[in-house]
């Protein structure tokens, strides 16, 4: 389930000058699969200066079962890199993928969505202290970049540490295609290829505005303290300290709990399933500094922030 595009069509050339793109490390995350399908059809191997390695589906067992993790054993493939040749299922898959496809490449783009029943704002995640990671993250053109190290065992963490600078793109919901986000991601791919000289005739895209937020800054998952029906309440992903983010009510609307933002920030992930139990995550809130806040407020005022960022 991979498409390989090179100057020698259909041949995987294990030399430098390669760029790898991966999707469906979690088997239910489908937006990235469509991005890579479209990318495979878009570029003529004779017209690119380098090699593209497109891994549409990394977690094949999870993809076929339409599950996030490796079926039966419930293993997270994106916490199993670089893997081991003789270990559990997830680590064997991770090892084969890493050794054969990731390690020989120069740069990596890893596409993800939220898990089921949630949605994620379109953004990139990258360790911006790494100069080459910084370079491709900015070239990709997402308005929002969360800067920080990736989780141990993730593809992004291991690849970047071992010399293949990699960024993660988070985009929308699981179990579906979302055309507006897919188009933006395809434009981002083309912009990165232009930056790296793989598409010499193209230019690097400017998203109009961009903010880099240190993921070590204030952030939290707001969780339900009581069960009930959740009604999300916000006009924009930007919320201010004390704003009502959602309300949780019982089935007779006799009792209602208002969940408020503990600090000013961006809702980068929100619950979609309105049924919640105590402890369920409701939204992922990331704090912003004064400069970022002012920039986003300007974008809201001028209408640049009107598109639903979760599409």
From TrEMBL:
Start and end residues of each Succinylglutamate desuccinylase/Aspartoacylase catalytic domain: 22-195
Source taxon at top rank: Archaea
SUPFAM superfamilies per UniProt: Zn-dependent exopeptidases
CDD domains per record: M14_ASTE_ASPA-like
Co-factor(s): Zn(2+)
Pfam families given in the database record: AstE_AspA_cat
One GO MF term attached to the UniProt entry: hydrolase activity, acting on ester bonds
PANTHER family tied to this protein: BLL3975 PROTEIN (PTHR37326)
Protein name per UniProt: Succinylglutamate desuccinylase/Aspartoacylase catalytic domain-containing protein
Naturally occurring in which organism (per UniProt): Halorubrum vacuolatum
Origin organism lineage: Archaea, Methanobacteriati, Methanobacteriota, Stenosarchaea group, Halobacteria
